[in-house]
Amino acid sequence: MQSTSLYTSMAGLQAINAQMQALSANLANQQTPGYAAVQAMTEAANYQGSNAPAGADAVALTPGPSLALGSLNHTGDPMNVALGGDSWLEVQTGSGPALTRNGSLSLSSAGILTDTAGNPVLGVGGQPISLPSLAKLEIGTDGTVSGVPASSPGGPAQVYGQINLVGTPAGPLTPLSGTLYSPPAGVTLTAATNGSLHQGYLNGSNVDSIQSMMQLIADGRSYQTQTDLMKSQGSSAADLNALVAQG
């Protein structure tokens, strides 16, 4: 009975620890543009083996991030775009396509439109968008990229491509690094039905910092309570063993 209760307490600590790690990561990224809050989740798994105790362990899972859009923050930078509706930017990484809501765009030395990590931002045809030196860059709400070439600053604007806005795919998104997420394997990405871009803005993090801090404090207290309970159980077991030895 004593052993079973200790195992149960350990499982409780693991669940609380997973929650605290997720909250800490969220608070550390509350100022990261396009950051999607991590969600902690655990599931019960029965102990295995001939001498396994009764009960179940707590196994940490990796569910998809929070899909809520962060607020629109004005930057005035034409290389910044915020997303509206249920939409994501699609970028090409070394391991395949990935999704992001961090609209801090850049131009590579070859004139390719990229995200902050240097991954090419894909157009509606699935290809990177190449830009010449521009006197003025314009990105429309539908993702159309146009601009006036620097070689003819008084000339008309030309269209160079259209940023692909994809809807949230079915199934969980897998965190890669920073604000990049891998879509579920085998799922075909489709165009967002209500997606839009807003040039000169960025999506903020969708972390609720006040709620996260309050939850972290509550979890810290729960962790301490659970630890104290385990110490008490251990002390009781030691006293019982001492009595048995004396008898």
Automatic annotation (TrEMBL):
<keyword id="KW-0969">Cilium</keyword>
<protein>
    <recommendedName>
        <fullName>Flagellar basal-body rod protein FlgF</fullName>
    </recommendedName>
</protein>
<dbReference type="Pfam" id="PF06429">
    <property type="entry name" value="Flg_bbr_C"/>
</dbReference>
<comment type="subunit">
    <text>The basal body constitutes a major portion of the flagellar organelle and consists of five rings (E,L,P,S, and M) mounted on a central rod. The rod consists of about 26 subunits of FlgG in the distal portion, and FlgB, FlgC and FlgF are thought to build up the proximal portion of the rod with about 6 subunits each.</text>
</comment>
<dbReference type="InterPro" id="IPR020013">
    <property type="entry name" value="Flagellar_FlgE/F/G"/>
</dbReference>
<feature type="domain" description="Flagellar hook protein FlgE/F/G-like D1">
    <location>
        <begin position="82"/>
        <end position="146"/>
    </location>
</feature>
<dbReference type="InterPro" id="IPR010930">
    <property type="entry name" value="Flg_bb/hook_C_dom"/>
</dbReference>
<keyword id="KW-0282">Flagellum</keyword>
<comment type="similarity">
    <text>Belongs to the flagella basal body rod proteins family.</text>
</comment>
<dbReference type="Pfam" id="PF22692">
    <property type="entry name" value="LlgE_F_G_D1"/>
</dbReference>
<keyword id="KW-0966">Cell projection</keyword>
<feature type="domain" description="Flagellar basal-body/hook protein C-terminal">
    <location>
        <begin position="199"/>
        <end position="242"/>
    </location>
</feature>
<dbReference type="InterPro" id="IPR053967">
    <property type="entry name" value="LlgE_F_G-like_D1"/>
</dbReference>
<dbReference type="InterPro" id="IPR037925">
    <property type="entry name" value="FlgE/F/G-like"/>
</dbReference>
<keyword id="KW-0975">Bacterial flagellum</keyword>
